């Protein structure tokens, strides 16, 4: 790098840099140079700073020999016109603070190149003609360039913004849809789990009720009174009205010898009783004659005794 700033240099010749073949960067700002020679020799020069001098014009031969030139600073000079063909190899250009003559037709190509290469055009201000003095290139030439250049750039930016916005909206819609689907699946799963739990609880309640019902039925059947216990024994008059049994109940039946012995004993007892009755009657008739009233009472008592005797004999 060679820095010759503020050295009051007023002349730069074509061969001034010939003896510096490896030079890649030179700073000549704040000098008094008013003219740049054609075909300036510096084949490896990449960075050329010649700002704040008195240069009033350049042409398409000025930087032809500077094949490696990429950065050119011409700010703060006295340039009024410029063309992109003067420095085809340059990628970064600074030309603000020059008294530009804003002939919109002649500046169209330069403006187009600066927009295409993304240069700074906001600081480029007009000095001539007087009616546009102090205005930027875009402000002074808006009516001329708006039909061609500004709409092209605006359409490109609008298109890019539209597609970016559309992509963001589609992404948000996709994310929202996925979130809604996930939330819906979670709600359905929770609903299924609740239904399963409710069904299980219902089945358990039904089983519990069924067990309780069975236990109650068992308890009722266990505590229910025997219907035979509720029936008391027959009264004396009811017993007299009951039919006589021709034979004993099978549960009361015994063996034949026991039955024969019982029958024999019953016959003996009945005979003895009859004999006793007869004897009693004879004695009463012979010894103590009673009046008719007394005899009627004795007859009634005798009939009752005979009836009791018959019932006893039938029971045997």
TrEMBL record:
Pfam families with a match to the protein in the record: LRR_8
Region described as Disordered: spans on this chain: 209-236, 251-316
Basic residues compositional bias, start-end: 271-284
Native species: Cryptolaemus montrouzieri
SMART domains, per database record: LRR_TYP
Coiled-coil segments on the chain, per record: none
Protein name: Uncharacterized protein
Keyword terms: Leucine-rich repeat, Membrane, Repeat, Signal, Transmembrane, Transmembrane helix
Transmembrane region(s): 155-175
Compositional bias annotation for Low complexity: 251-261
Biased segments, Basic and acidic residues type: 209-229, 304-316
Amino acid composition bias (Polar residues), ranges on this chain: 285-302
PANTHER family: SLIT RELATED LEUCINE-RICH REPEAT NEURONAL PROTEIN, TIR DOMAIN-CONTAINING PROTEIN
């Amino acid at each position: 790098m060679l820095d010759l700033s503020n050295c009051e240099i007023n002349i730069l010749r074509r061969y001034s840099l010939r003896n510096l073949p490896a030079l890649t960067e030179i700073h000549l700002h704040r000098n008094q140079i008013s003219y740049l020679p054609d075909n300036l020799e510096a084949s490896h020069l990449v960075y050329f700073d010649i700002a704040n001098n008195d240069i009033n014009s350049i042409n398409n031969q000025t930087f032809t020999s500077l094949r490696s030139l990429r950065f050119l600073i011409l700010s703060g000079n006295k340039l009024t016109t410029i063309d992109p063909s003067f420095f085809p190899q340059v990628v970064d250009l600074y030309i603000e603070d020059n008294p530009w003559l804003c002939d919109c037709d002649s500046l169209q190509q330069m403006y187009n190149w600066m927009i295409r290469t993304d240069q700074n055009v906001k600081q480029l201000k007009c000095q001539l003609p007087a009616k546009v003095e102090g205005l930027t290139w875009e402000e002074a030439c808006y009516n001329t360039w708006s039909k061609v250049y500004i709409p092209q750039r605006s359409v490109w930016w609008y298109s890019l913004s539209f597609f970016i916005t559309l992509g963001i909206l589609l992404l948000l819609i996709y994310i929202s849809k996925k979130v809604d689907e996930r939330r819906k699946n979670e709600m359905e799963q929770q609903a299924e789990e609740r239904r399963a739990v409710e069904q299980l609880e219902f089945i358990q309640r039904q089983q519990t009720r069924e067990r309780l019902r069975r236990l109650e039925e068992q308890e009722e059947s266990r505590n229910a009174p025997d219907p035979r216990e509720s029936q008391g024994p027959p009264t004396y008059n009811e017993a007299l009205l009951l039919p006589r049994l021709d034979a004993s109940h099978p549960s009361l039946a015994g063996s034949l010898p026991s039955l024969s012995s019982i029958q024999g004993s019953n016959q003996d007892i009945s005979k003895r009783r009859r004999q006793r009755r007869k004897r009693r009657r004879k004695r009463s008739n012979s010894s103590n004659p009673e009046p008719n009233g007394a005899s009627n009472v004795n007859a009634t008592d005798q009939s009752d005794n005979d009836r009791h005797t018959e019932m006893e004999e039938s029971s045997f």
